[in-house]
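Q: Got a minute? One more chain.
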Amino acid sequence: MTLLQLAWKNVVGSAFRSWIVFLCVLVVTALLFSTVLVIRGAQDSLRLVQQRLGADVVVVPEGTETQVETALLMGQPVAVWMPRENLDRIAGIPGVAIVTPQLYLASLANAPCCSAEMFLMAFDPQTDFTITPWLSQNLGHELGLGEAIGGSDVFVPYGEENIRIYGYEIDLSGNLERTGTGLDTALFFTFETAREVAQVSRTKAVRPLEIPSDSISAALARVVPGADPRLVALQIVHDVPGVAAIPSSGLFQTFHRQISGLLRSVLAILGITSVLSLVLVGLVFSMAANERRRETGVMRALGATHGAVLRSLLAEAIILAFGGGITGILLAALAIYLFRNLIVLSLGLSFLFPSFPSLVALGGGGLVLALAGVTLAVLPPALRTCRQDPAVAMRE
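A: Always. Here it is, folded:
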C-alpha cells in the first residue's frame, strides 16, 4: 500500500473529522480568495481608468472634485461647468505640454427620446489624447458627425439601428476595452456631435440638452517631460481662479481610501477566522492522532521509520487541505463573477474581474497558503505521534 493510498484510507475512514477539516479549509480559503479578488479587481479598475484618461493633471471647477471622480469612476452623470477660456490659461502654465477639454453630459431617463440613461462625454478630436489614440489604432479613422464610441457594455437596443440621445440618432462605431468602471456604460463623441444633439433636442426631446456657451466641464493636461505634475497642479490653482487641479497620483483618493478601509476590516475578520479554523484543525488532528496511537505503534513495530509515519499523517492533511482549498477557490471565483455587479453597487467601488492568467496565479497563491497553514497546524500532533515508543503505543 502506497503512502497516498494509506492517507486516503484514513481520510475515508474518519469521515466526520475529515469533513470538519475540509470545511474549515474551504471557508478560510474562500474568504481569503474573495477578499484578494475584490481588492485586486478594484485596484485594476482604478489603474485602467487612470490609463484611459492619460492625463498628468485633471482640472475641474473648484468644489466638484469628488463629483467628477465619481462620474469618471462610477459613470454617474454630472453637470459641472467652467469657462472655456481656462484652456488658454492652463496651456500657458509653465510645464504644461498639451491641454484638451471635455464635456460631461447625461441622457434623459425613461424618456421616449432616449434609448437609455447614460453618462455622455464629449471630446475635442483636435487636441484629445484619451479617445483619439484608440480610434487610430482600432477604428482606423476619426469620429465624424453623429458617430460615437461606447464603453464595453454599450450596445444598440434591439430592433433599432442607432442609439437615440435627446431624439438624435447616433451611430455606434465601436466599443472601448472593459475597465470595470461606469465608463463601460458611457458614450463618447465629439464636441461637434454634442452641439448637434443639443440643437435637435430643442424640437425632438421632452427636455432640451442645455450646454452653456463657451463652457467646458474639465480640462485634461499633460506636462512636459521632467516636469512634476504636482507642482504644475499647484501653479494651475494659483494662476487660474475657480478651479481645482488634481495630479494623476491624487485621482480617486476617496476610492483608494475606501479600498484600504475595506481591506483592513476584512483582513481583521479573516485573521480571527483563520486562527480559529487552524486551531480547530490542529485539535481535530490531535484527537485523530491519539486515537490512532496503536495503529502508528504497529507501523513502527513493522519497521516504519519516524519519517514514514510523519509523512503518512501529513499526506492525510494535505489531501484534505488541497480538496478544501480548490473547492473554496472555485466557489469564491464563481460567486464573485456571478455577483460582481451587486458588489459594485453595494460597496460603491469599481471592479474588474481579473483575466484568466491572473485568476490562476491568485488561486495558486491561495492554495499554497491553505496547504502551508494546514501543514503547520497538523505538524505538532503529527510529530508527537511519530515519536512515541512503539511498545507503549501498542499497549494503549
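A: The first strand starts at residue 57 and ends at 61.
Q: Perfect, thanks.
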